[in-house]
Amino acid sequence: MGNKRARGDRGDRGVLDWLLDPENPSVRALTLRGLLGRPPDDPEVVAACAAISLWKPVERIFARQAEPGHWGDPESPYLPKYKATYWTVMLLAELGLTAAEERAKRAAESLFRFQSPDGGFAECGEVGAQRECAEVAARRRAKGKEPPDEEAFVADYLHQATLSCLTGNVLAALLRIGFAEDPRLARAVGWLLEIQNEDGGWLCPYWKAHVRDRHSCFFGTIAPLEALSELPRDRRSPAIEMAADRAAEFLLAHRLYKADHHGFRVIHPGWLTLSFPFSYNYTVLRGLSVLSRLEIRDERMEDVRGVLREKRTQDGKWLLEGTPAGRMQTSLEKKGVPSKAITLACLRALGERET
C-alpha cells in the first residue's frame, strides 16, 4: 500500500522531469503527447519520437528481426510468448514506434498473412496448422489410431485459432503504428462487431473450450475495446460507438475487477498488478486507461481509482509490479522499482497532469 501524503509533498515537478528525461525517449514522447497535450509536430515531440528507434532496448529488438519483418519462426507469430512477432509488434507500438520507422512498418505488414478472410487474426497460418496436424497424426498413429483428415483439421484449427483478444491487440497495435486507413483493419473491426457477445463483452468465439460459455472474458473484452478506442474519431461509426459503449458497460458492471453476482468479490487478484507491457494481459490499470481514453466518466470507476492512488509512492511514482522479464526480445524496466511506463499510465488514467 502506498503512503498517503498531500499532493504538494510528492514533488510533482520532479515526477514530470523524471518522465521527460531523454534517457527514455519512448516515455518522453508519450508524456509530451499524452500528458502535456503537445501536438505531433511539436519540435520536442518530433525529436523524441525520432530517438525511440535509436534507444538501446529498441535497437536490441530490431537487431533480432529477420529481413521480411518477423522474429523467430515466420510461421509461428503467436508462440513463444512473448518473443514471437505478434507480441513484439504490440510492444513496439506501445513504445511509440510508427510506420515512419521502416522496420516497424515491415513487422506490422508481416502480420496480415495471418488475417482470416472474415477479418480476425489467427495464432498461425496454414503452414502452422499443418504442422499441428502432423503432430496430432503422429500421436494418433503411435496409439494405433487413424490420423485426422488434414484438410478438415487445418480448416477447423485455423477457425478455432482466430481469437477476439488477439485480434483486438493486433488491431490496436496496427492503429498506433499508422495503418488506420488500411481497409484490412476495417475488416478486423467489422469482425469484432459481428462476434460481440450479448453481455457487451467478447469471448474467443470459435474456440471449443468456450463453446458453451455465455459470460464474456475480461482479456477478450479489453483488447477489442482498446482497439476501438484507438480508432480516429472520424472513423467511429454509430455501430462502433454502440459496441464500445456496450463493452464499457460490461467492465463497469463489474467495477473493472469484481464479480457482479457474487457480492462484488475480487475476481482475480492478479488483475490488480501494475504490469507492462499493457497489451499482454488484463489489469485494472489497463481497463481504467481504456475507459479514460474513451472519455467515460462513471462513479463505478472510483473503486479502481482508489486502488491506484493507494499504490502511489511517497514521491508520486508507481512501481512496476509485473513484467515477463527474460521472455521478450529485450529487457525494459525492472520489477519492483519505480516505473516510468506505469507512472505515466496511472497519471493519464487518473486524469492527473503533473505541472
What does this structure look like?
The chain has 355 residues and is mainly α. It has a single domain, classed as Alpha/alpha barrel (Glycosyltransferase), CATH 1.50.10. It has 15 helices and no strands. It has helices at 12-19, 25-35, 43-52, 56-63, 85-95, 102-110, 126-142, 150-160, 164-177, 183-195, 218-230, 238-253, 284-293, 302-311, 340-350. Helix 2 (25-35) runs parallel beside helix 15 (340-350) and helix 7 (126-142) packs across helix 8 (150-160). The chain is globular and about 70 Å long. Mean pLDDT is 94; it is low at 1-11.
Instruction: Tell me which CATH architecture applies here.
Output: Alpha/alpha barrel
Class from secondary-structure proportions: mainly alpha
Low-confidence stretches: 1-11
Q: How far apart lie the N and C ends?
A: 25 Å
What is the number of independent domains? 1
Class in CATH?
Mainly Alpha
Main beta sheet, described? none
Beta percentage is under 5%
Element order: H for helix, E for strand: HHHHHHHHHHHHHHH
Shape: globular
* Record field, number of beta strands: 0
Computed Rg: 21 Å
**In CATH terms, what is the fold-level topology?**
Glycosyltransferase
Residue share in helix: 40-55%
The DSSP helix count reads 15
Q: Write down the overall mean pLDDT.
A: 94
Per-chain topology:
Layout: H1 12-19, H2 25-35, H3 43-52, H4 56-63, H5 85-95, H6 102-110, H7 126-142, H8 150-160, H9 164-177, H10 183-195, H11 218-230, H12 238-253, H13 284-293, H14 302-311, H15 340-350
